[in-house]
Design a protein that fits this description.
Chain B: Keywords: Acetylation, Membrane, Mitochondrion, Mitochondrion outer membrane, Protein transport, Signal, Transport. The structure holds 2 protein chains of 2 kinds. Chain A is mostly beta strands. Helices cover 10% and strands 49% of the residues of chain A. Chain B is globular. Classes of the chains: A mainly beta, B mainly alpha. At the A-B interface, strand 10 and strand 11 of A face helix 3 and helix 7 of B.
């Protein structure tokens, strides 16, 4: 969950979309233009056999679910469409490097005159794949080693191990993922990890060691995730000069939380969408299943996109969240929300607005943030149809607020507090889409409504990230 | 060897900070809201931490510097050196008796000003003796004696946390102390040898004190605060065995020394006694 709270310690994407096999990237199978096609087009056909060639470890029962649709095709066009769908399903399993489809007329003794055989020629991924990356960022360089067993038990189970050795911190994670055969969206995963993060804006260092188990399943058009997480969190000051407010938070705590997330995503692309909307609701209840931290956390994200004239897109987003402590213990700095920076309210420094003590930002218990963007193609559209399409210019208007709530004042007082001293900014810039997972922005920002204690970034600001307001 | 190098680095580190304090804080007077942080008195604090905390409190009282004692579950992790106690004065955070003495000196409060160089060297030697013998013996008994570790130290140390974190932290601490004991050669000692070391240390202190009210005659120094902190805590703390306290009780001048400091500097006796019942 890359939520606004800075504490999403996810430098290692343990799961998430399989990069190589994005549905968008898969080109439809090339259909050779044969003169016979018109003759066959409306003719009824029967798919007699479906072969899958090239299987090694993969269990066949898993694949029968994925290709079942092909048998139901009634004419040639249908066969091709269904085969294409089946091919995409097979690729989505993340266990094949390549899938080719061959459609041929049936041969042999029992061949019907209008019978067809469909053959999927698959190439399995290796039993184990490894990766090696180096990352630089946050005043730290690190080396990331990854090991992946894409098809451990033959039914698209995936075991992933990542180890990151940095100049300052070491992190690792082990994750096991199992989809339900025939229903890839219903899946179960278990993770074990240790992640260390440094948050210079809070002079805080956090080490999380945790176990989590999650179950995802689709309901109607939504994707639901239920998760339990047990984390041992160790907080310490980054420097001797850290403010006393941060020093007071140092030490160990155990969080055991149950969370639920719901996502409806009808956008055509998660980065630079042209149309569609996104609704994300996330709620977390900590403390009932043990641990020292007790709170209820709710947050949501809405995004709407609309294509206007000349390929320009108007995009509006709204985020909000609330953290309610349960019991007399105040909330921990590690659970609170953070706001500001090139990924949320532009024109402010990273997570550098709201409650602070001696220059260390302490986060808030409630926040909201809204953004309005007008994306247009680059002026004069250089590199049109190619490289130039990765870029957009945008004009933006961001606003938001982050504060603590003293419970007991009533909801109206809280709303008033969130409406006071609104931070906002506007400006324009260039956005670069990196694959379908991240984007870079270079903006000229004019921050407004700056409160004392906020750190601003007046003028040019550079941002990179996977989630943007 | 490695440990030694780290130790020297730490000392240098402290020196750098002390120098910094000297320049930064010299002019500022002692504020009213100075605070001393230690773990929870009733359920959490262990003998060694209680002794170190009492030593600092005694020192500050001898200097006439008011400090408010605050108990925090995470005092150990809040401390910049990871040691108990630490004081928060103005916007400065200083931990352990040595650096605190330097810090107060920078603010113009010192108990050892009147001593000559020889006496000062002697005082430092005795302070080292107390730290190397009494403090180490306390740590040994707490964490290396299985009965004490199981019945007192681990349950108390882990009391603020929920399982399984409580067990992890307690065993982690025990392992850390045992490793340190092995590094300084105490790993192979028996409990009896440790008691014998404590006796020898007390004998040396008793001889040095003689019939004087304080170690350097009329006026208390940081050595008196340190000795008081440890002896008083050992005497008033119930452990699995009373042997440790018994060893000290055989030196009558040390007992009256403790009583004297308690009466002179801790008029509100209830406070101090309840603070250290283990």
């Amino acid at each position: 969950m890359g939520t606004v709270h800075a504490r999403s310690l996810d430098p290692l994407p343990m799961k998430g979309p399989e990069l190589g096999v994005q549905a968008d990237d898969i080109e439809p199978p090339e259909i050779e233009q044969e003169p016979k096609q018109e003759v066959l087009e409306n003719k009824d056909v029967v798919v007699q056999r479906v072969h899958i060639d090239g299987l090694g470890r993969t269990k066949e029962d898993l694949l029968t679910y994925e290709i079942a649709g092909v048998f139901r095709a009634k004419n040639l066009i249908d066969v091709m469409r269904k085969s294409h769908e089946a091919r995409q399903k097979l690729l989505r399993l993340g266990i094949f490097r390549k899938v080719n489809v061959v459609i041929d007329t049936s041969r042999g003794e029992d061949a019907l005159p209008n019978g067809l055989d469909v053959t999927f020629e698959v190439t399995e991924l290796r039993r184990m794949t490894g990766s090696y990356n180096t990352m630089v960022g946050n005043n730290e360089g690190s080396m990331v080693l990854g090991l992946k067993l894409p098809n451990v038990f033959g039914r698209a189970e995936k075991l992933t191990f990542q180890f990151s050795y940095g100049t300052k911190e070491t992190s690792y994670g082990l994750s096991f993922f199992k989809p339900q055969p025939g229903n890839f969206e219903r899946n179960f995963s278990v993770n074990v990890y240790k992640v260390t993060g440094q948050f210079p804006w809070s002079s805080l260092r956090e080490t999380d060691r945790g176990v989590s188990a999650e179950f995802s399943f689709p309901v109607w058009r939504t994707s639901q995730t239920l998760k339990w997480e047990g984390v041992w969190r160790e907080l310490s000051c980054l420097a001797r000069t850290a403010s006393f407010a941060v020093r007071q938070e140092s030490g160990h705590s155990l969080k055991s939380s149950l969370s639920h997330a719901m996502v409806i995503d009808t956008r055509n692309s998660s980065i630079l969408p042209r149309q569609g909307g996104l609704l994300k609701i996330h709620q977390e209840l900590a403390g009932y299943s043990g641990g020292d931290a007790s709170f209820l956390k709710e947050d949501f994200e809405i995004q709407l996109n609309k294509t206007l004239f000349w390929d320009s897109v108007l995009s509006a987003s709204l985020w909000g969240g609330l953290l309610l402590p349960i019991g007399d213990k105040p909330t921990s700095i590690a659970d609170r929300f953070y706001l500001g920076g090139p990924t949320s309210i532009r024109g402010f420094s990273m997570y550098s607005l709201g409650p602070q003590s001696e220059g260390d930002y302490l986060g808030g218990e409630a926040y909201w943030a809204g953004g309005l963007h007008l994306y247009t193609p680059l002026p004069f559209r250089p590199g049109r149809g190619g490289f130039g399409d990765l870029f957009r210019t945008h004009f933006f208007l961001n606003a938001g607020n982050l504060c603590n709530l003293n419970y007991g004042e009533g909801p109206q007082a809280h709303l008033k507090k969130l409406a006071e001293c609104i931070r906002w900014s506007y400006g324009l810039g260039i956005v670069l889409r990196l694959g379908n997972i991240a984007r870079l922005e270079l903006n000229y920002c004019i921050p407004m409504g700056v409160q004392s204690g906020d750190r601003i970034c007046d003028g040019v600001q550079f941002g990179a990230g996977i989630r943007f307001l | 060897m490695f440990v030694l190098v780290i130790h020297i680095l730490n000392v240098l580190h402290c020196c750098v900070f002390v120098c910094l304090f000297l320049t930064v804080t010299a002019a500022e007077p002692w504020p009213e809201n100075a605070t001393l942080y230690q773990p929870l008195k009733e359920d959490q604090i262990l003998l060694s931490d209680c002794a170190s905390s009492l030593a600092v409190q005694a020192y500050l009282r001898m200097c006439g510097l008011p400090v408010q004692v605050v108990c925090r579950v995470n005092a150990e992790y809040m401390s910049p050196s990871g040691k108990i106690p630490f004081i928060h004065v103005g916007n400065q955070v200083v931990s352990e008796l040595g650096p605190i003495v330097q810090f107060t000196k920078a603010k113009g409060h010192s108990l050892s000003e009147a001593l000559d160089d020889v006496q000062r060297a002697e005082m430092k030697a005795y302070m080292e003796l107390v730290n190397n013998m009494l403090l180490t013996a306390e740590l040994y008994i707490q964490w290396c004696d299985d009965a004490t570790a199981t019945e007192i130290s681990r349950p108390r140390y882990s009391s603020p946390y929920s399982w399984p974190l409580s067990s992890i932290l307690a065993y982690q601490k025990q392992w850390e102390v045992r490793r340190k004991m092995n590094a300084i050669g105490w790993g192979g000692k028996t409990l009896e040898q440790v008691y014998e070391d404590v006796s020898q240390c007390c004998q040396a202190l008793s001889q040095r004190l003689g019939t004087q009210p304080y170690f350097f005659n009329k006026h208390p120094t940081e050595l008196d605060a340190l000795v008081f902190g440890h002896l008083f805590t050992i005497l008033t703390t119930r452990l699995t065995s009373a042997e440790l306290a018994e060893r000290i009780k055989s030196y009558s001048n040390l007992l009256s020394f403790c009583r004297r400091i308690e009466q002179t500097y801790f008029e509100d006796k209830r406070l101090i006694q309840s603070s250290c019942s283990l």
